[in-house]
Batch of 4 targets.
Target 1
Amino acid sequence: MTTPRSRLVVNQFHYHAAGADAITGQMRFIQASLKAIGIGGEVFAVEVKKGAGDVVALWDPERASKPNSLLLIHHSQGNPLLDELLSLPVKKGIVYHNITPPDFFAHDPLLAQTARLGREQLKEMSDQVDVVFADSAYNASELKGLGFRDIRQLPLFDARAFQTKKREPRRPELPPRVLFVGRLSPHKDQARLIETLYYLDRLRPGTELFLVGGGDPVYQSYLKDLARMLNISGQVHLPGTISAEARDLCYRSSQAFVCLSQHEGFCIPLVEAMAADLPIFSLPDTAIAETLDGAGVQLNTNDPAKIAAVIDAVLGDTKTVGEILAGQRRRLKSLERTQCAARIQEAFVGLRRLVIDAKPAVAPSRRRRSYAPSPATAGA
Amino acid sequence: MERLFTIAGLDPKVQRGLAQRVRQSLKTLSHAPAGILLVRRPARMNRLSYLRFRILKRQFTGARTPGLPSAVKTGRLLARGLRRMKRGGKK
């Protein structure tokens, strides 16, 4: 089957695809939003994990370089295939999701190297892509600092899918529960949450902490040891990666969502917590303040004892909790204006001219390291 | 006292009341055992687990862990342990 000459095709690539991954979710959202206005395209990945769905295809350079197509490269870490992608004879775009600084991975040289490579590649890409997208103003500002121009913001998810659900009141005989959802990783600082629980347990005895998410096994063993050291291992639950239904149940059965993460490019779990009508306590680092836009409780300290005292004081005041939840509902409603299919469609309709009316794209001559002598010096 | 939290649009009177409660909670916590310092090995943890925990703590938090052996000393201890194993136990 051949693609009609005048029809724009938007293909997307990310090295990994997984079921509960925000980037895979965004790729699917872009694909579905564009399909609704007649723009086709495929989603490609090299490592496709279970749960990624049938819409993700294994990387195929021939299918990705058909005429009239734009290749959107989602960038969140070092990409071993970047040279190949940039040499394809099609127009290219980047969607930047931010890269965790390598300093957080001192314990894992491979992870640190992947993060370092991702940041180096980002610098190289600034003059090799035709369209630049970021999924938050924070990510856009990082790109601007690296010399990217004409950066547009692209929705990460469909906010209409996050309707505020009424939370079941927790039975008084059950212990209070605090929740955080996110990959187990040093930059998300689950260790500080465990230290906070140590103090919170003294103010609200029996409080439980649920740290939902899989991830770094070394960090996970450190978290388990830390809970043992503090004698609260029975109250710290690390269920790993769980189904969407089980995650919803965790949101519904908790009293607070606490996020002490030090680096986020957006943080979708905050949106999920707002939809679950759960009061949020968070540090305003990186893109977290932008995602919440004043909603929830902003913590101005990272001292676990002080954080525990704030959580205890706020949760003890039902009127204040009501006001916090009202603010979060307003924020969730306002996200519907920016995180929607219409924004994606607007962004890509304008690109039709860039991709289709442009002269046939020729594979750019990629600058490669050459060890052969140049003609000028050959005879020297 | 520093402002420990911000809730947008909250009545200043309510804010002051909450700050008062936070101060009370902190007073209660000042009597809590300093378990968070984690400088002593708890009886329920063996020496190897404790050493691993402290090495990881230093890597993840950058915190100084007093008494943690240097890489050279750890290497010497391991070498001595291996020699003992070859001999077939402590002699």
Target 2
Amino acid sequence: MKAVVALAAVFAGCSSAPMGVDGAPSAGDDAGGPPSGDPGAPCAIGLTSTPIGPTAGPTATVAVAATVTSGNAGLPTYTWSVQFGAAPVAITARPGGAAIQFATPDPGIYDVSVGVSGEPAGCTSAALPINVGVVGANTQLFRLRVVPRADVAVTPLDRQITVRGGASADLGAFSLEMPPLSTFQVTGPAGPLAAYVRLAPVGDPDRFVEAFSVADPQAPTGVRLSSEPQTARVIPSSGDLAPRLFTGISPDFFFMLALDRGTPITGTVRDPGDAALAGATVQLSIAGVPSTVATTGPDGSFTLAAALDGTAGSAVTVDVAAPAGSGLPRLSATSTAFQLDAGLVVRYAHNIAPVPLDATRVARKTQAVGSAPVMIVGSLPAAGTIATGAVAPVTAAGDIRIAAATDPTGALAGVRVPPALLSAVVTVASGDLAVAALDTTLGAPARLEAPRGPSIGTAALGPVGADGLPGAALDLVPVGALAAAGAPELHAIAGPGGAITTVIASGGHYDLRFRDPQNRAAAMVVADRDESSIATSYRLPPALGIRGSLVGGLEVLPGATVQVLCSACTGIDRDRPIAEAVSDGAGRFVVVIPDPGTR
Amino acid sequence: VFVCVSLVMAGCFYVDPIEVHPHVALSPADGEYPLYRGSPFVVTAHLDHPYTFEWSAVACASKFGRDCSAVPFAALSGTSDTVAFTVPVQVGAPGSGLTQSIVVGVAAHDDRGALAIGAPTTIYAVTDAPPVFDLSSARQIYTIGVPLELFTEVGDPDDAVANLTLAWTVVGGDPAAPLTQLPAVPLDNGHLRTGVELTPMVAGAWDLRVQATDPLGATAIEDLAFDIALDRLPCIAQTQPIVAPDGRALPITEPTLFLVSQVDDDLDSYPRSSAAAPFGTATFAWSILAPGQTERAPLAGVTGNAVAFDPAMFTPGDLVELRVEVFDRTLTPVDCPDDQPTCAIARPTTCVQRQTWRVEVR
């Protein structure tokens, strides 16, 4: 089999197109077709390499042949060059000079270029990067996201890439779509309105485009959308119209997104004593689209609005936030069986009547921790029920996040919490946090200890040997109670020998996210570590450089953000970049990612 | 020419004109003096009719055209009245002595073979050629504190470049700035690529002078002028998610990563533009204005380019402001009033160091 990249040049100048990572021409290639018409000296140079998907080895070789196609006859002269990194590679030219062969003892990118001179005139040069892999390479899927500069008329790109372990690779050229400008307007019963709109191709939510519409009939909103049918999630800025999900939108020159007041949904909220709970906030989410937000009145009743048409069978999440100071958890239940037209009855469980903490004092050893913010967090698998019509009530989980503060004596005066195994995250001072267990199942404890945060020491090591990685970064991302309390991430930079020292919250758990801005190693995540389980050192995985280029139409795309993202992740981890880069003036980029390795 | 003379007997005589020797003079092209060893030399023969020329030139060890080589270093013939050649460095073979003069001779014949008269040989004194700089670049602007490598190429027509003495001095900017000589690299054309490294710590116009001196004392001077600019402020170039227009809020329904994906800066960009010194990376300061609060709370310890925002931390309908400010190594305070969602410390106003997302929890 042969991999062929057709390179075309019209008049002077042959453009080059790289290979895809799997040895085949990448989908993004824009090599152009063969030139036509004789004026000047149209010329196409085809470069053919064999074998396809070459691998490195002591006796491995790659052959490359050039084919010049021109309207004019002639016997061209070929000048070949092969580079591996910055080093030239010895080549053996075949008779006539149109083909070469070279050894590939090492895996990586071999950059082949050929200059063509003589007759036919007009041919200049062509280039072909050849990815030479490793036998037994593992493969791993990543996502490559490209966000162009705002002033460039192309759409963002988000697509999967397959990376083979053990060898750097050239991903080829990625072509970003340059669609015409589409305009839209969001309307309501009274005309155009302001709204947030998130558009994405149907079935491909990662390739989203965001926009805000305005309430001006003369000012439709312009967006550049790929040519596929789109979904649009519309959330109006005013609270009286129901957000809505539109699907199958044709990205025409102009389209309308019409909102209405939706379907009114009523209900009541009852506290653990079965009394009406006033001041609770209620919101629904239907297939990911929120309803309007309602607040219960003195009688515990509420009315909200949601777009229900086309949502039959969709999962509905009911979210009820008790008023601040109530000491009640936030309820949440999801079901496909809710009968929304029958009204909702939200009941807090009888056994979660709040416990006052007035007698609980927060201290550090013998010192009271006064005037300190305290976030009490926890969860209850069954904190209430949500009933609709004749359907059996659905159990609602309880999420406890109660913001409080100690008084000058360290007491949690006026604070109430559900009876449960909870955690109190105490901010003794800025950056000085402590996580204390708070068991209220048998009543309020007399004391909460908030120890000083421990200083932890670890080290970031390179992929091989004992070399440390000074300058490597460690982000400590709170998990568990700290995350629930909204504690900030911690950030530390490795010093000499890769040593890292920082102070963490006592009792706190963190994900350790290592990364090396100098790309000596790939990023690594160590999940859920606390003071006792943070190792003395961590060896960061080998890094693999992958490169590519960006084009939009016939233009290169400089200044675009290039992110490599997790392909299998969900939630917010799906959006956390594994590697980031910005395309250079020629639209090229290089990113360093974890090496999938070899078998 | 026919001359008709009236005599007693009518008749005509034919008289052939008498051939006159043409006259020739040599002159070098403008600007050829002084004549240097190893330098090109152009000389023209001035005549008033088309002629053929036989040129010859010999190198001599005396300034007065004596002790000359027996073998011409140039011998040309043709119809061109101008010839160009290179003045030899040595009279003959290596070691035969430096050329001190050359003797150029020309024998010019007209189309009938008559030899021109005049000054068929001319003695030209030759002197030591100074080194030659042949690289000059457009004036560049660099950033203060960034090590610079500045290069020039130097050659010498009649001396080995290895024998040149090079002296670099700072004559404009900060004359006390230390210079580090970089290894010289011989080039294919016989010249030498040479350079220095310096780290300018003073902004303004700089002038770096390099003087090359050959073993005979001939010198050449090249000035490299450049400008050193102050470290410019970082600019937030790209963020996600979208920022709501003034007075409006971005609805957030699920945990969302707020991210500064690009910061433009000459030294401390994000992502980092180079792993090499002195390049670094931008730093970030995040803060949050929670519902019911009047002051923004810094997100202590968060210096990365991203912050995760979990709407479950708030109540549906809450309005929250999330703010990021970016810094380079100068840590220039972003001192705009707190109520400004964006801030450009200096012009251009499109270069902002602050961005604020106004978020509605949904």
Target 3
Amino acid sequence: VSGPIDSSQAARRDWVVRYLASLLGIDAADVDLTKGLGEYGLDSVDAMIMAGQLEDHFQIEIDPAVFFEYDTLQQMLDAWNATDRKE
Amino acid sequence: VAVGDAILGRHPPADPYPTYRRLLATGPVVWSDYLQGWAVLGHSAARQALRDDSLLTDNIFQRMVPRLAAATGHDFAALRQLHNCIAFFIDPPAHGRARRVLASLMARWPTARLRATAEECVERHLERGCRQGGFDLVRDFARPMPGIVVARMLGIPQQDVAELARASETFVRLFDVIFPVREYHRIDGAARILIDYFAAEIRARRVRPGEDGISDMIRYADAHPGASDAELAGFCAFTFFACQETTASFLAGGAATLLQNPAAVAALREDPSQLPSAADDLLRHHSPVQAVGRVASADRSLGDVRIAAGDRIVVFLGAANCDPAVYPAGPCPALDRDAAPHLAFGDGRHFCLGAPLARMEGVVAFSRLVSRPEIRLDPDRAVWSDRRNFRGLVSCPVLL
């Protein structure tokens, strides 16, 4: 990654959508963030790998267990965005 | 029921026992969405599960590590090699072979042969800690002795123990299963240190065998072909981290509980014959391994539910060990009563081979501790590990 990382809320959302679309082999427009990872047939290993890629891309630390604490990906993104406002 | 989440989630409680008691009230076996499997909490159901030979190990890492490797481009070779030698992740028929190698080592090194080493190590550290006017229960009391004892058994120098113990502490995070990938890299590095160390020790003994546990293991393996030197290195590494980390966790947690019960300390000082049962009750109350996974290979009933072939099962040893149906509430350690056998060592096919060793080390450590009435704990400053499965204190100051 060169230059500053765009870690706006939109950039995070886009990254997650693109990642899942590529992983699942579906169109980005069909990625539904009101679903959880489990509903897409993804398991804890997928969550760990995705968290690792998120860490690398956004230069953050993220515990993959968060994906199983929220019912939907949108809730997870909301919680992630909420941690920023505290900083 | 958020059972798995409550115990194995991102923010595990420092004291899981209130959560266990609350969950036990909902039933002995409950479904957990978080675990995607059955959580076994009740003592009777847990024992039944552990003794059921149709329940196989849940070899989650064998499925997980190749996928992690594919995603990261890192092969995790040391982690795989060590993992394949962890006896409680191995199913029959390979399990019997692994267990016989390890059992031959424990049989050659009964506790009577190691007791003096344990006593000398604990006494030396307590003496120094008391002379200094205070010490840390974990760093200066619980962690040093188990590694020194297993080093005596395997025949490796005492000065190598500290580095191997650090690697062991890193490695046991593996049992949390779900954690950041960067931790997998650290765990792989720790496995590399352990594997390479014991591989070199084995090579040295191929040239020059001695009267030590590693040489005993080599002789056994040569007489009963089946284990390669690479596997023997894995068995040595498993023996080291298992003996070191479980016992250190038991000694620290047990001592912390004991020191908060001055009546029990005084009673044990008066009557040391109660030490073995007290040590066992402390182990019940402080089970280092909180949960073990299984997969059903056939349909069956467990407790009050039907389990289907292929279902995942997580047996919560810590919950079973505080089941109020078996253990009435009361101060720990309970003295003057015959407690039901606890499940801290597991049960059935994978029952801990180091149980007699851990019990001896507990009795030695606690007998030395109660012999010093000046020792006081500062429990408000106790720090617990954030590990989810492998429970333990990180530090706890002792005052005099």
Target 4
Amino acid sequence: MATTNLVSLNDYKARVSVTENDNLSMTRKEFKRASEITGERLGRIERAIESLSLQVESVSKTGSDRADPKNLYSGIGSEIEKEQPMILRVRSALHSSLEHLSKAQTYFSEELVREAEMDLYYGAIRRVSGLQFESSNFQEALTLLLVALEAHVSFPYLKNEIVALRSATAILADNPLMSEDALDACIDVLESATLNLAAPFAGIDFDDNSSE
Amino acid sequence: MLSLSDLTLEQVIFELKFDQTFRYWDICGAIWQDISRKVPDISLKAIDPQKAIGVVSGGQITLSFGPERMGSDQHFPKSLETFRKVTSDAAEIVLSHLKVPELVRIGNRYIYFWPGGSSEEKAAEFFEKAGFITLSERTKTLGNKIRMSRVRFVVERNDVSMTVRVGFRDATLRLETPSFVTLNRGPFLEKCVTVDVDCYSTKPVGVGTFDAELFMSTQERNSRKTIEGLLA
């Protein structure tokens, strides 16, 4: 439905432009075709975003419909946990890092606040990486997140990048024992915002055929 | 006064339930291969389209899985550590192969018995000591003695509840042997008092946050604490 609306809107814009300016070099038909192509592309992008958000939703389904991990791993009565299980510590650290992203999004127009919150987020993620949590997929996703953040230190953040980081962090928080699917979703989300996940390879020419 | 040390752990059971996944029929062999890599002393006992069953450590631990469940159990475990490790390794493999996103129910059950309660009188003594019978004077006029053969109650907690069943039950060992073989049933009790604590999730659980080993050790602690509380 949304795709159709976008096509119609472009079509309408094209028609209006042609009516308003008779000197336009494109005919109405050409304009219509051009607008449909744009619409198709927009539709494709929209569908990709839709499938991505479904993927994210499937791996980061939270809320009252699922059991809280705190309740699964907590003792009864007066039992006081000597030390919180690592899975809960990791989750709690990631949830607190999400607060910084939320603030960065809320105060997006205030550059200083936004970037300060992003710095705090970076620090929080680095602290998570210091926790000894054994899950190879989780560690891989966390490393990607750190690479993306490290590569971004000298640039201001865009809104879609903050949104992508928020989604990726939410996936991590909801899947510390990460499956391959959750890891893929995390990578897809980060890549969708064109965050640089290949920063460590900067300067390496993978197509270098000089030895031949 | 009874305490937890007077009871013997007879059986531990663990079970995961999830929505039916037809992948079981495609990759059952791959699952077994991975499990046998992680648990080398596992041997396949039975396999069909509904379930696959294997035994570990010469039959001490039974593992099974199918299109909508995975489970394990052990009788008279000497140490629960091995049971937890084997179960958690197998659960991780099964869930990742079957691509299960969510667990509908997680259950972990501990069945203890009291070796001292082999007669009805002894069982009544157990119930009285545990304080399960608190009848008013008025009820006592109904007869000389009121016996209670079982008690069942549910302790509701956030997302994980606990059903406790205490009962006097038949524990006769039933074995079919040839007529010329005489079975010495001496060491086996015919009847005994059992305390069965079943801990289970009341909400679906995301696989991404489910640590089987941690769940089992938490619930084992909780069930012991519940029994200690009952017997105190």
